[in-house]
Amino acid sequence: MAAAGLPPLPRTAWLEIDIDALSANLAALRRLAGAEVPVRPVVKADAYGHGAIPVALALEAAGADGFCVAAFDEAMDLREGGLRGPILVLYPVPAAFADEAARLDIAVAAGEGRGLAETVRVAADIDPARPLGIELEVETGLGRGGFAVAELVSAARLVADSPGVVLVGLWTHLQAAEDPAITGAQVSAFDAAVDGLAAAGIALPARHVAASAALMTDGIMAYDGVRPGLAVYGLVPDELGEAAVSGAVAAGLRPVMSLYARPVRVADLPAGTGVSYGPTFRTARPSRIATLPLGYGDGWSRGLSNRATAIVRGQRVPLVGNVAMDAVMADVTDVQGPPVDCSDEFVLLGSSGDERITAAELAQQRTTISWEVVTGMSRRLPRVYHAAAGPVGLRTLTERRG
Fold first, then answer.
1. Are the beta carbons of 17 and 386 closer than 8 angstroms?
2. Which residues are known to be catalytic?
3. What is the number of structural domains in the chain?
Protein backbone atom coordinates (compact mmCIF):
# COMPACT_ATOMS: atom_id res chain seq x y z
CA MET A 1 0.00 0.00 0.00
CA ALA A 2 2.73 2.44 0.96
CA ALA A 3 4.59 1.82 -2.30
CA ALA A 4 1.46 2.90 -4.18
CA GLY A 5 1.16 6.07 -2.10
CA LEU A 6 -1.84 4.72 -0.22
CA PRO A 7 -2.37 4.82 3.55
CA PRO A 8 -2.51 1.63 5.63
CA LEU A 9 -5.84 -0.10 6.05
CA PRO A 10 -7.79 0.93 9.17
CA ARG A 11 -8.73 -2.69 9.92
CA THR A 12 -7.65 -6.22 9.02
CA ALA A 13 -10.73 -7.14 7.02
CA TRP A 14 -11.06 -5.73 3.51
CA LEU A 15 -12.39 -6.20 -0.01
CA GLU A 16 -10.17 -6.26 -3.07
CA ILE A 17 -11.65 -5.09 -6.38
CA ASP A 18 -9.85 -6.28 -9.52
CA ILE A 19 -9.90 -3.42 -12.03
CA ASP A 20 -8.31 -5.55 -14.75
CA ALA A 21 -11.05 -8.17 -14.35
CA LEU A 22 -13.67 -5.41 -14.55
CA SER A 23 -12.25 -4.16 -17.86
CA ALA A 24 -11.95 -7.71 -19.20
CA ASN A 25 -15.58 -8.41 -18.29
CA LEU A 26 -16.75 -5.34 -20.17
CA ALA A 27 -14.84 -6.50 -23.24
CA ALA A 28 -16.31 -10.01 -22.92
CA LEU A 29 -19.85 -8.65 -22.68
CA ARG A 30 -19.27 -6.44 -25.70
CA ARG A 31 -18.23 -9.53 -27.66
CA LEU A 32 -21.41 -11.31 -26.55
CA ALA A 33 -23.63 -8.38 -27.48
CA GLY A 34 -21.89 -7.55 -30.75
CA ALA A 35 -19.11 -5.09 -31.36
CA GLU A 36 -21.41 -2.26 -32.49
CA VAL A 37 -23.98 -2.62 -29.70
CA PRO A 38 -23.73 0.00 -26.92
CA VAL A 39 -23.05 -1.49 -23.48
CA ARG A 40 -24.35 0.46 -20.48
CA PRO A 41 -23.28 -1.25 -17.25
CA VAL A 42 -25.58 -1.10 -14.24
CA VAL A 43 -23.76 0.47 -11.29
CA LYS A 44 -26.68 0.85 -8.88
CA ALA A 45 -26.38 -0.09 -5.20
CA ASP A 46 -22.79 1.17 -5.02
CA ALA A 47 -21.92 -0.84 -8.14
CA TYR A 48 -23.30 -3.99 -6.54
CA GLY A 49 -21.16 -3.35 -3.50
CA HIS A 50 -17.93 -2.84 -5.46
CA GLY A 51 -17.81 0.97 -5.12
CA ALA A 52 -19.76 3.03 -7.65
CA ILE A 53 -17.37 5.87 -8.44
CA PRO A 54 -14.10 3.94 -8.90
CA VAL A 55 -15.92 1.16 -10.76
CA ALA A 56 -17.76 3.53 -13.09
CA LEU A 57 -14.62 5.56 -13.80
CA ALA A 58 -12.71 2.35 -14.60
CA LEU A 59 -15.50 1.15 -16.89
CA GLU A 60 -15.70 4.53 -18.61
CA ALA A 61 -11.95 4.40 -19.24
CA ALA A 62 -12.43 0.88 -20.64
CA GLY A 63 -15.02 2.13 -23.13
CA ALA A 64 -18.45 1.76 -21.51
CA ASP A 65 -21.11 3.61 -23.51
CA GLY A 66 -23.12 4.82 -20.52
CA PHE A 67 -24.44 3.72 -17.15
CA CYS A 68 -27.65 2.77 -15.37
CA VAL A 69 -28.54 3.39 -11.73
CA ALA A 70 -31.70 2.98 -9.68
CA ALA A 71 -31.91 6.31 -7.83
CA PHE A 72 -31.28 9.94 -8.71
CA ASP A 73 -28.83 10.51 -5.86
CA GLU A 74 -26.76 7.61 -7.22
CA ALA A 75 -26.56 9.45 -10.53
CA MET A 76 -25.63 12.73 -8.84
CA ASP A 77 -22.91 10.94 -6.89
CA LEU A 78 -21.41 9.64 -10.14
CA ARG A 79 -21.43 13.11 -11.70
CA GLU A 80 -19.79 14.59 -8.61
CA GLY A 81 -17.20 11.80 -8.81
CA GLY A 82 -16.20 12.85 -12.33
CA LEU A 83 -18.21 10.51 -14.57
CA ARG A 84 -18.92 12.15 -17.93
CA GLY A 85 -20.86 9.51 -19.88
CA PRO A 86 -24.63 9.12 -20.24
CA ILE A 87 -26.52 8.03 -17.12
CA LEU A 88 -30.04 6.61 -16.93
CA VAL A 89 -32.01 6.42 -13.67
CA LEU A 90 -34.13 3.28 -14.00
CA TYR A 91 -36.71 4.16 -11.35
CA PRO A 92 -38.95 7.25 -11.34
CA VAL A 93 -37.35 10.49 -10.17
CA PRO A 94 -39.47 13.08 -8.32
CA ALA A 95 -40.49 15.86 -10.69
CA ALA A 96 -38.84 18.44 -8.42
CA PHE A 97 -35.46 17.19 -9.67
CA ALA A 98 -36.25 17.57 -13.39
CA ASP A 99 -34.23 20.76 -13.82
CA GLU A 100 -31.20 19.37 -12.01
CA ALA A 101 -31.37 16.13 -13.99
CA ALA A 102 -31.36 18.08 -17.24
CA ARG A 103 -28.48 20.27 -16.05
CA LEU A 104 -26.42 17.19 -15.17
CA ASP A 105 -27.39 15.39 -18.40
CA ILE A 106 -29.05 12.55 -16.49
CA ALA A 107 -31.90 10.76 -18.26
CA VAL A 108 -34.85 9.61 -16.17
CA ALA A 109 -37.24 6.71 -16.59
CA ALA A 110 -41.02 7.04 -16.54
CA GLY A 111 -43.51 4.22 -16.29
CA GLU A 112 -46.69 5.76 -14.91
CA GLY A 113 -48.97 8.45 -16.30
CA ARG A 114 -49.42 10.82 -13.37
CA GLY A 115 -45.70 10.96 -12.60
CA LEU A 116 -44.84 11.53 -16.26
CA ALA A 117 -47.39 14.33 -16.57
CA GLU A 118 -45.99 16.08 -13.50
CA THR A 119 -42.41 15.76 -14.77
CA VAL A 120 -43.42 17.18 -18.16
CA ARG A 121 -45.23 20.07 -16.47
CA VAL A 122 -42.24 20.96 -14.27
CA ALA A 123 -39.81 20.58 -17.19
CA ALA A 124 -41.63 23.06 -19.42
CA ASP A 125 -39.25 25.88 -18.49
CA ILE A 126 -36.05 23.89 -19.01
CA ASP A 127 -33.63 25.29 -21.59
CA PRO A 128 -34.67 23.65 -24.90
CA ALA A 129 -31.00 23.44 -25.84
CA ARG A 130 -30.48 21.02 -22.92
CA PRO A 131 -33.80 19.20 -22.49
CA LEU A 132 -34.49 16.49 -19.94
CA GLY A 133 -34.07 13.04 -21.48
CA ILE A 134 -36.92 10.65 -20.71
CA GLU A 135 -36.92 6.90 -21.24
CA LEU A 136 -40.27 5.13 -21.15
CA GLU A 137 -40.49 1.75 -19.45
CA VAL A 138 -42.90 -0.75 -21.01
CA GLU A 139 -44.79 -3.28 -18.87
CA THR A 140 -44.40 -6.56 -20.74
CA GLY A 141 -44.94 -9.06 -17.93
CA LEU A 142 -42.64 -8.38 -14.98
CA GLY A 143 -45.55 -6.88 -13.07
CA ARG A 144 -43.40 -4.25 -11.41
CA GLY A 145 -43.62 -1.05 -13.42
CA GLY A 146 -43.98 0.52 -16.82
CA PHE A 147 -46.68 1.67 -19.21
CA ALA A 148 -49.04 -0.94 -20.59
CA VAL A 149 -48.58 -1.40 -24.33
CA ALA A 150 -51.98 0.21 -24.92
CA GLU A 151 -50.92 3.32 -22.95
CA LEU A 152 -47.55 3.80 -24.56
CA VAL A 153 -48.48 5.86 -27.62
CA SER A 154 -50.20 8.55 -25.55
CA ALA A 155 -47.27 8.67 -23.12
CA ALA A 156 -44.74 8.96 -25.93
CA ARG A 157 -46.81 11.63 -27.67
CA LEU A 158 -46.96 13.67 -24.47
CA VAL A 159 -43.17 13.69 -24.31
CA ALA A 160 -42.73 14.32 -28.04
CA ASP A 161 -45.14 17.28 -28.02
CA SER A 162 -43.90 18.97 -24.82
CA PRO A 163 -41.15 21.57 -24.37
CA GLY A 164 -38.16 20.92 -22.15
CA VAL A 165 -38.18 17.13 -22.58
CA VAL A 166 -37.07 14.67 -25.24
CA LEU A 167 -37.82 10.98 -25.68
CA VAL A 168 -34.46 9.19 -25.67
CA GLY A 169 -35.24 5.58 -24.79
CA LEU A 170 -37.73 2.75 -24.64
CA TRP A 171 -37.08 -0.33 -22.52
CA THR A 172 -38.45 -3.25 -20.58
CA HIS A 173 -37.05 -5.74 -18.07
CA LEU A 174 -37.27 -9.52 -18.36
CA GLN A 175 -38.89 -11.63 -15.68
CA ALA A 176 -37.07 -14.91 -16.37
CA ALA A 177 -34.52 -14.71 -19.18
CA GLU A 178 -33.78 -18.40 -18.73
CA ASP A 179 -37.38 -19.31 -19.67
CA PRO A 180 -37.89 -19.12 -23.47
CA ALA A 181 -41.69 -19.05 -23.25
CA ILE A 182 -41.89 -16.19 -20.74
CA THR A 183 -39.15 -14.25 -22.49
CA GLY A 184 -40.69 -14.79 -25.92
CA ALA A 185 -44.01 -13.38 -24.73
CA GLN A 186 -42.30 -10.34 -23.22
CA VAL A 187 -40.25 -9.66 -26.34
CA SER A 188 -43.37 -9.96 -28.50
CA ALA A 189 -45.15 -7.43 -26.29
CA PHE A 190 -42.19 -5.07 -26.48
CA ASP A 191 -42.02 -5.36 -30.26
CA ALA A 192 -45.75 -4.61 -30.43
CA ALA A 193 -45.13 -1.48 -28.38
CA VAL A 194 -42.37 -0.40 -30.75
CA ASP A 195 -44.59 -1.06 -33.77
CA GLY A 196 -47.34 1.00 -32.18
CA LEU A 197 -45.07 4.01 -31.85
CA ALA A 198 -43.92 3.67 -35.45
CA ALA A 199 -47.51 3.43 -36.68
CA ALA A 200 -48.37 6.58 -34.74
CA GLY A 201 -45.57 8.46 -36.47
CA ILE A 202 -43.48 8.88 -33.32
CA ALA A 203 -39.74 8.81 -33.88
CA LEU A 204 -38.34 5.66 -32.31
CA PRO A 205 -35.85 6.20 -29.51
CA ALA A 206 -33.09 3.79 -28.52
CA ARG A 207 -34.52 0.43 -27.40
CA HIS A 208 -33.00 -1.91 -24.83
CA VAL A 209 -34.13 -5.12 -23.16
CA ALA A 210 -31.20 -7.40 -22.32
CA ALA A 211 -29.49 -7.47 -18.94
CA SER A 212 -26.92 -10.05 -17.79
CA ALA A 213 -29.07 -13.18 -18.00
CA ALA A 214 -30.27 -12.41 -21.51
CA LEU A 215 -26.70 -11.84 -22.68
CA MET A 216 -25.78 -15.33 -21.46
CA THR A 217 -28.64 -17.10 -23.23
CA ASP A 218 -29.00 -17.90 -26.90
CA GLY A 219 -31.43 -15.06 -27.65
CA ILE A 220 -29.35 -12.01 -26.82
CA MET A 221 -31.94 -9.37 -27.90
CA ALA A 222 -29.37 -6.63 -28.41
CA TYR A 223 -31.74 -4.03 -29.96
CA ASP A 224 -30.00 -0.63 -29.58
CA GLY A 225 -28.07 -1.46 -26.41
CA VAL A 226 -27.67 -3.78 -23.45
CA ARG A 227 -27.48 -3.04 -19.73
CA PRO A 228 -25.60 -5.84 -17.93
CA GLY A 229 -25.37 -5.74 -14.16
CA LEU A 230 -24.21 -8.86 -12.33
CA ALA A 231 -22.08 -10.09 -15.25
CA VAL A 232 -20.03 -6.89 -15.24
CA TYR A 233 -18.71 -8.03 -11.88
CA GLY A 234 -17.85 -11.49 -13.23
CA LEU A 235 -20.84 -13.26 -11.68
CA VAL A 236 -23.46 -15.43 -13.35
CA PRO A 237 -27.18 -15.12 -12.54
CA ASP A 238 -27.91 -18.05 -10.24
CA GLU A 239 -30.92 -19.25 -12.20
CA LEU A 240 -28.87 -19.97 -15.34
CA GLY A 241 -27.06 -22.99 -13.87
CA GLU A 242 -23.71 -24.66 -14.42
CA ALA A 243 -23.76 -24.47 -18.22
CA ALA A 244 -23.91 -20.68 -18.00
CA VAL A 245 -21.05 -20.67 -15.50
CA SER A 246 -18.91 -22.65 -17.94
CA GLY A 247 -19.96 -20.35 -20.75
CA ALA A 248 -19.06 -17.28 -18.70
CA VAL A 249 -15.60 -18.64 -18.01
CA ALA A 250 -15.17 -19.45 -21.70
CA ALA A 251 -16.28 -15.92 -22.59
CA GLY A 252 -13.62 -14.49 -20.28
CA LEU A 253 -15.70 -13.31 -17.32
CA ARG A 254 -13.78 -13.16 -14.02
CA PRO A 255 -15.06 -12.35 -10.52
CA VAL A 256 -14.07 -8.82 -9.54
CA MET A 257 -14.58 -8.91 -5.75
CA SER A 258 -12.61 -10.83 -3.12
CA LEU A 259 -12.93 -10.65 0.67
CA TYR A 260 -9.94 -11.08 2.99
CA ALA A 261 -9.23 -10.93 6.71
CA ARG A 262 -6.39 -11.47 9.14
CA PRO A 263 -7.19 -12.60 12.69
CA VAL A 264 -7.19 -10.20 15.60
CA ARG A 265 -6.80 -13.15 18.00
CA VAL A 266 -5.85 -16.82 17.74
CA ALA A 267 -6.33 -18.91 20.88
CA ASP A 268 -6.15 -22.53 21.97
CA LEU A 269 -9.45 -23.46 23.63
CA PRO A 270 -10.14 -26.61 25.68
CA ALA A 271 -12.78 -29.14 24.70
CA GLY A 272 -16.30 -28.08 25.61
CA THR A 273 -15.72 -24.33 25.13
CA GLY A 274 -18.66 -22.38 23.69
CA VAL A 275 -17.72 -20.13 20.79
CA SER A 276 -19.55 -16.83 20.13
CA TYR A 277 -23.07 -15.87 21.23
CA GLY A 278 -25.53 -18.60 21.99
CA PRO A 279 -23.48 -20.68 21.91
CA THR A 280 -24.45 -22.82 18.92
CA PHE A 281 -20.97 -24.34 18.67
CA ARG A 282 -18.82 -25.98 21.34
CA THR A 283 -15.39 -27.38 20.75
CA ALA A 284 -15.46 -31.18 20.71
CA ARG A 285 -11.70 -31.34 21.31
CA PRO A 286 -8.88 -28.97 22.20
CA SER A 287 -9.15 -26.46 19.33
CA ARG A 288 -7.32 -23.50 17.86
CA ILE A 289 -9.82 -20.73 17.10
CA ALA A 290 -9.07 -17.60 15.06
CA THR A 291 -11.21 -14.48 15.45
CA LEU A 292 -11.72 -12.62 12.15
CA PRO A 293 -12.78 -8.96 12.49
CA LEU A 294 -15.89 -8.86 10.34
CA GLY A 295 -19.51 -9.80 10.86
CA TYR A 296 -23.06 -9.02 9.90
CA GLY A 297 -22.33 -5.31 10.36
CA ASP A 298 -20.09 -5.70 7.31
CA GLY A 299 -22.52 -7.78 5.28
CA TRP A 300 -21.24 -11.19 6.40
CA SER A 301 -24.71 -12.53 7.09
CA ARG A 302 -25.71 -14.17 10.36
CA GLY A 303 -27.36 -16.73 8.10
CA LEU A 304 -23.86 -18.08 7.41
CA SER A 305 -23.42 -19.13 11.04
CA ASN A 306 -21.94 -22.65 11.27
CA ARG A 307 -22.34 -23.05 7.50
CA ALA A 308 -19.59 -21.18 5.69
CA THR A 309 -15.88 -21.82 5.34
CA ALA A 310 -12.77 -19.73 4.77
CA ILE A 311 -9.49 -20.53 3.05
CA VAL A 312 -6.14 -20.16 4.80
CA ARG A 313 -2.86 -21.41 3.33
CA GLY A 314 -4.88 -22.96 0.51
CA GLN A 315 -6.91 -25.11 2.93
CA ARG A 316 -10.60 -24.79 3.77
CA VAL A 317 -11.50 -24.30 7.42
CA PRO A 318 -14.96 -24.13 9.01
CA LEU A 319 -16.36 -20.88 10.38
CA VAL A 320 -17.92 -21.77 13.72
CA GLY A 321 -20.39 -20.22 16.13
CA ASN A 322 -22.93 -17.51 15.48
CA VAL A 323 -21.76 -14.63 13.31
CA ALA A 324 -21.56 -11.49 15.46
CA MET A 325 -21.89 -7.90 14.30
CA ASP A 326 -18.12 -7.46 14.13
CA ALA A 327 -16.58 -10.94 14.32
CA VAL A 328 -16.67 -14.48 13.02
CA MET A 329 -14.52 -17.37 14.26
CA ALA A 330 -12.60 -19.97 12.28
CA ASP A 331 -11.55 -23.39 13.55
CA VAL A 332 -7.93 -23.68 12.36
CA THR A 333 -7.01 -26.75 14.42
CA ASP A 334 -6.34 -28.93 11.38
CA VAL A 335 -4.40 -26.43 9.26
CA GLN A 336 -1.10 -27.97 8.23
CA GLY A 337 2.23 -26.38 9.04
CA PRO A 338 3.10 -23.99 11.86
CA PRO A 339 0.16 -22.94 14.06
CA VAL A 340 -2.02 -20.28 12.45
CA ASP A 341 -1.41 -16.83 13.92
CA CYS A 342 -2.48 -13.23 13.37
CA SER A 343 -0.21 -12.84 10.34
CA ASP A 344 -2.15 -15.41 8.30
CA GLU A 345 -4.48 -14.17 5.56
CA PHE A 346 -7.92 -15.73 5.24
CA VAL A 347 -10.04 -15.70 2.08
CA LEU A 348 -13.80 -15.56 2.66
CA LEU A 349 -14.75 -14.77 -0.95
CA GLY A 350 -12.31 -15.49 -3.75
CA SER A 351 -9.54 -18.00 -4.35
CA SER A 352 -6.35 -19.28 -2.78
CA GLY A 353 -4.39 -22.14 -4.28
CA ASP A 354 -6.81 -24.64 -5.79
CA GLU A 355 -9.68 -23.54 -3.57
CA ARG A 356 -12.32 -20.95 -4.48
CA ILE A 357 -15.28 -19.57 -2.55
CA THR A 358 -17.86 -18.01 -4.87
CA ALA A 359 -20.73 -15.63 -4.30
CA ALA A 360 -23.03 -18.39 -5.54
CA GLU A 361 -21.73 -20.74 -2.82
CA LEU A 362 -22.33 -18.14 -0.11
CA ALA A 363 -25.77 -17.42 -1.55
CA GLN A 364 -26.72 -21.08 -1.41
CA GLN A 365 -25.51 -21.37 2.18
CA ARG A 366 -27.74 -18.52 3.31
CA THR A 367 -30.66 -19.25 0.93
CA THR A 368 -30.42 -16.12 -1.16
CA ILE A 369 -28.94 -14.97 -4.49
CA SER A 370 -25.50 -13.78 -5.56
CA TRP A 371 -26.77 -10.21 -6.01
CA GLU A 372 -27.53 -9.95 -2.30
CA VAL A 373 -24.16 -11.39 -1.28
CA VAL A 374 -22.09 -8.73 -3.05
CA THR A 375 -24.41 -5.74 -2.68
CA GLY A 376 -24.67 -6.51 1.03
CA MET A 377 -20.97 -5.82 1.67
CA SER A 378 -21.20 -2.69 3.79
CA ARG A 379 -19.40 0.59 3.25
CA ARG A 380 -17.34 0.17 6.40
CA LEU A 381 -15.32 -2.62 4.75
CA PRO A 382 -12.30 -0.94 3.11
CA ARG A 383 -12.13 -1.50 -0.63
CA VAL A 384 -8.69 -1.81 -2.20
CA TYR A 385 -8.65 -1.38 -5.99
CA HIS A 386 -6.05 -3.51 -7.76
CA ALA A 387 -4.60 -3.64 -11.25
CA ALA A 388 -1.79 -5.82 -12.57
CA ALA A 389 0.85 -3.55 -11.06
CA GLY A 390 -0.70 -3.67 -7.59
CA PRO A 391 -2.98 -1.37 -5.55
CA VAL A 392 -4.22 1.68 -7.46
CA GLY A 393 -6.96 3.00 -5.18
CA LEU A 394 -8.59 2.81 -1.78
CA ARG A 395 -11.98 3.62 -0.33
CA THR A 396 -12.69 3.65 3.39
CA LEU A 397 -15.36 5.35 5.47
CA THR A 398 -13.20 8.46 5.72
CA GLU A 399 -11.39 8.78 2.40
CA ARG A 400 -11.17 7.80 -1.24
CA ARG A 401 -7.87 7.61 -3.11
CA GLY A 402 -7.39 6.78 -6.77
1. yes
2. 44, 277
3. 2
